[in-house]
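Box 3.1. Reading complex inputs
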Amino acid sequence: MSAVMMDGKALSAKVRQRILAETEALKERGVRPGLAVIIVGEDPASQIYVRNKEKACVECGFYSEKYALPAETSQEELLGLIDELNHNPRINGILCQMPVPAHISEQAVIDAISYEKDVDAFHPVNVGKIMIGDFDFLPCTPAGVMELLAEYGIDPKGKRCVVIGRSNIVGKPMAMLLLHKHGTVTICHSRTADLAAVCREADILVAAVGKAKFVTPDMVREGAVVIDVGMNRDNGKLCGDVDPAVAEKASYMTPVPGGVGPMTITMLMQNTLKAARLQNGL
Ligand code: GUN
């Protein structure tokens, strides 16, 4: 078998068109969604992500502000900026690109952003809402995966879903969204005994490990759907968590680049649009 490659770039363009159309309609009612993006320091990968987020704002017709702060910025200064943005009516969504420099507490930053403007869905209130299944903002990367599955007619209901990775950003919320769609979900991690055997049970396998080519063909059941959330550098080349040879066994698979990545930013735009609506009672 050779897997169908799931085209996140194409789906992303389609969803952004829809967001743009909805934004135009909102603007006629006097509301333009606004996103503030904060980046602290010079991390090259973060710089690329932030640039792509700004581009997406333009594509979707949003107002955006970017705050590029030096690496020496104190936590107090950063929290001061967040407080101002929390009270700025032009700004509906606030995102601080992670990681932040070591002298700043990531959790303090997450807690400081008003949960109503928390378009990353990282705030404890939003994390709790996701757990309950009553949420306004979807966690961006897992939401992008769910959109891709839906687009290709893959329903998690009754399926064995295995998520490799237990991060707060991807693994844990990914498991919750699959569970809400009635999947039977297992979360694996670095201490899982016989990880390969657990992965071979999966109808839907999501790799969010952060290690290049971690998932090899022997870990994949013939005909499984394999979703690759990885963004790694292998000798300078961008590659995922899944060995491309897995395509010979999978029924569907996401490429890197061009799979989950573009969808993540599009889901951020969707959350910002939703935030603008909620904050304006529309
Ligand atoms: N760093 C890596 N992924 C993300 C993300 O989704 N949001 C933020 N704020 N930072 C990140």
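In summary: The chain has a mean pLDDT of 97.
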